[in-house]
User: Fold Neuferricin homolog from Drosophila madeirensis.
Amino acid sequence: MLLTPAELSKYNGEDGQPIYLALLGSVFDVTRGIKHYGTGCSYNFFVGRDASVAFISGEFEEYDPQTADDVLSLKPNDLIGLANWKEFYEKEYIYKGKLIGRFYDEQGEPTTYHHKYLALFEQAQIAKAAVDEMRLKYPGCNIEWSEAKGTRVWCTTTSGDGKERAWTGYPRKLFSPGNTNFNCACVPESELDQIDTEGKAAHGDAMFKAYDNCSSRAKECFYRV
Assistant:
């Protein structure tokens, strides 16, 4: 089935119509989820349209058809999040066809825009795999917050995944590609000098940085955001 935006908008659950929505140009019948998508319900914003960006932004107040499905400016992790949403709809609801527009042309073929999205999504997957590998090599820190001292991060032999290891490590900021946020990672002492000098791990584009006002061999660091 190929639908235009005008045709899709009619599938809104009113006057006996089923409830459709589109995500990344794919159309799904979500009628059986009427308690979520029916009139006045929390996800009714998505009904009868492709509002892919809102799955990430969480902004359900205003719908702009010029930007609602323009996903190329989203961060890599957000593109992966959208793909996870699509997998959810494929599993839980009924796939009905394609929406003519940004992702598919009038013959139902992927558009140039769609190919650009797929290329960015592939890059996001590669970057995520590199970061996941990094997190296996450099486990996460313990984290706690107090009003008096702010956020405290520190390493133990079980921090991160909870599995016992032979080394404790030292806390460092770990930035993933295309993301200004960071995770705390525990770095073994044997790699500290190289990481602190280069700022980059031996593989991938993930970046390590020392915490401000925290000595290089400190077992714990404090910071405020």
About this structure: The beta strands are 2-3, 20-23, 26-29, 94-99, 142-146, 150-154, 170-175, 182-187, 207-209, 220-223. The longest helix spans residues 112-137. The helical segments are 5-9, 34-37, 54-57, 76-92, 112-137, 189-198.
